[in-house]
Amino acid sequence: MWDERFSEPGFAYGKEPNDFLVSVAGRLKPESRVLCLGEGEGRNAVWLAQRGHRVTAVDLSTVGLEKARRLAEARHVTISTVHADLAAYDLGDAAWDAIVAIFLHLPPDARRDLHRGVVQALAPGGVFVLEGYATDQLQHGTGGPKNLSMLLALAELKDQLAGLELPIARQVTRGVYEGRYHAGAGAVIQIVATRPRATPPTA
Ligand SMILES: C[S@@+](CC[C@H](N)C(=O)[O-])C[C@H]1O[C@@H](n2cnc3c(N)ncnc32)[C@H](O)[C@@H]1O
Fold first, then answer.
1. Is residue 200 a part of any domain in this protein?
2. pLDDT tens-digit profile of 162-188?
């Protein structure tokens, strides 16, 4: 499905970065090692690279990743791309200063395992940024999966991200206008989660 969508002319979700990511990107330290999960055609990865971060984009779609590399080239930046299924992908251990998941919708088991992997993969002080459609999005019909089990619930996410601090964890309804497929008021979950820095041992 994703290769098909990304083979259509233009960029399915546009070339501009996601609004929520833009609004919180100041929380990333300079030259962060950033892993973008389910990054598709690369709009967020390329924008982060333009801000000086060292970005790796992972996706299931080779067509999307090829477009991401071309977008990076056009913007005179470099990103690394990894073709992988996130249902079976090792994010590593304390390997990333930031992990970004924008409108990535996975089946429940894969979602749980991925979020547990995020907790482990963030370096101390690292930041996880997520925006995705909430279960209430089914009432809006302005984008996202039509299957309830693929949509996000705040309580579940908080549980899966246990161990991280949550400066932002909310559900909001906002206008999401991103390319052809996100077109109107949508119910979204927004998360900024940080891994606490290691505290020095007390004497
Ligand atoms: C709605 S698109 C969002 C793309 C991008 N994050 C953005 O905001 O423009 C969802 C993306 O998740 C990717 N995806 C879905 N399931 C995946 C999986 N199991 N492993 C890796 N990528 C996956 C799709 O290929 C697609 O690029």
1. no
2. 999 999 999 999 999 988 888 899 999
For residue 118, which of 15, 201, 9, 195 has the smallest C-alpha distance? 195
Could you read off the pLDDT of 101-143 as tens digits, one per residue?
999 999 999 999 999 999 999 999 999 999 999 999 999 989 8
Whether residue 17 is contained in a domain is answered as: yes
Give me the CATH number covering residue 14.
Answer: 3.40.50.150
Phi first, then psi, for residue 4 (nearest 5°) are: -65, -50
Ligand 1 probe mutation, 46, 47, 59, 142, most atoms within 8 A of CB: 59
Closest by Cα among 62, 105, 101, 108 to 81:
62
Domain of residue 187: give its range: 2-194
Number of domains in the chain: 1
* pTM: predicted TM-score of the whole model, two decimal places: 0.96
User: Which atom belonging to ligand 1 lies closest to the Cα atom of 101?
Assistant: 6
